[in-house]
Write a structure and sequence with these properties.
Distance between the termini: 37 Å
Order of helices and strands: HHHH
Largest sheet: none
Radius of gyration: 15 Å
Helix content: over 70%
Length: 81
């Protein structure tokens, strides 16, 4: 069974239409950026460590990074255009 991005893309478009997300964002690009952000510490561990200057594999960092990503998404939702 293959995974499809059709449903997440459709959900982001729906959220955009009802004003939950800024109108000037491309839903497909937003989804790709969020996937990249969520996987950054796994796919780019050296860069993540250099930028954050801490162990990106630690539980403490993982929790803090997840919290920051959640805040970013909330800010996007509150910055409707």
């Amino acid at each position: 069974m293959s995974w499809s991005v059709t449903k997440p893309n459709a959900d982001l478009r729906r959220r955009q239409q009802v004003g939950e997300l800024p109108a000037d964002l491309d839903p497909a690009c937003l989804l790709l950026a969020l996937f990249a952000a969520a996987s950054a510490t796994v796919t780019l561990p050296r860069i993540a460590t250099a930028i954050c200057d801490e162990d990106v594999e630690s539980e403490e960092f993982t929790r803090r990074y997840a919290d920051q990503l959640a805040k970013l998404v909330r800010h996007l939702a509150h910055g409707q255009a």
